Amino acid sequence: MVTAYDCLWAQIMDEAGVDAILVGDTLGMVVQGHATTLPVTVDDMVYHGSMVVRAVERALVIVDMPFMSYHESVEQAVRNAGRLIKETGADAVKLEGGRIQSETIRAISRADIPVMAHVGMRPQAVRQLGGMGKIQRDEELLLADAQAAQDAGAFAIVLELITRDIAERITDTLAIPTIGIGSGGGCSGQVLVGPDMLGLTPGFSPKFLKKFADLRSEAISAVQAYVREVQDGTFPGEKHSHA
Ligand code: KIV
To answer: Which pLDDT band holds residue 82 (cuts at 50, 70, 90)?
Structure first.
């Protein structure tokens, strides 16, 4: 699984053969330039989610439920999950939480909307956690969270920043697939933020991130070459002009 937020990149990810595309609320940071995911709204998710769905022919598309779109009540959660599915055409929604959101996961599943859960480091809890990026090590609590999400009806679960051994134990214990980010190779699958793994996001190099390309440098070099060629008159030459 990778994240994508628009038609252009979703098409590339889909063509490259990923099983699932997450329209993550990381779009708040990657696309909108915020410091956290907290400002993202349901309207933002509808806007980006529908672009991704229009582009994808093959992969499963999951849309994140943003901060405060499911925290007030179960009714609010079902209403917003329904809106995300109806207005984007996505296959499933994702929300952060295990035990604390089990009632909500159950209610959304009962509305026949597939729900992916997300436990471990929860970026929407950044204020309570006192920052992002802290590795989660409380084995029994993490297992209880994952188990509660599965029991409530989640079809899969993201494990974020959990030690390798704990993530492996959760994966072995659960019947549903675990999708890890910063949680080692023992998960059923992996997720990375698309622009991070392509080397497009500057200044973000946590231990878990492998950059599979350096597209930012390539893009900068390409734009610099264009500027140079326009300035020195090389572009457009005959080949790119109409007679
Ligand atoms: O919002 C997001 O992109 C995510 C992934 C990091 C799993 O939740």
So the answer is: very high
